[in-house]
Design brief:
By secondary structure, the protein is of the alpha+beta class. Helix content is about 55%, strand content about 15%. The chain is built from five helices and two strands, in the order αααββαα. Strands 1-2 form a two-stranded antiparallel ribbon. A hairpin with an 8-residue loop joins strand 1 (about 55-60) and strand 2 (about 70-75).
Length: about 100
């Protein structure tokens, strides 16, 4: 597995910092919080979704668009919410430690 790029790390750190229990972050918020361009954020978020680092957790209406936009959250946060057995928690810890 390849190491994450600087843009990927910045977007994941921003998602961890800005995501709360009731509200995740949009692509525009990720790009602004990580100080990267919208195009770079779009491509990188698609790659992070494909690799399993980010997940879409909902949709939100925003004033700058007619359609709802996706809300993203780090995959570890999503998995931690639904973990049912202690073995899953250990696996998540080891997965986060390996990064």
């Amino acid at each position: 597995m390849r190491p994450l790029s600087e843009v990927s790390q910045a977007l994941l750190n921003t998602a961890n910092r800005l995501s709360t229990a009731g509200r995740a972050v949009t692509l525009a918020e990720l790009a602004a919080g990580a100080c990267v361009g919208r195009q770079a954020a779009t491509v990188t978020v698609k790659n992070l979704r494909r690799s399993g680092h980010l997940k879409i957790v909902g949709l939100r209406r925003v004033s700058y668009r007619n359609r709802p936009v996706a809300e993203y959250a780090p995959a570890l946060v999503c998995a931690a919410d639904v973990s049912a057995s202690p073995g899953v928690d250990l696996g998540l810890c080891l997965q986060a430690w390996a990064r």
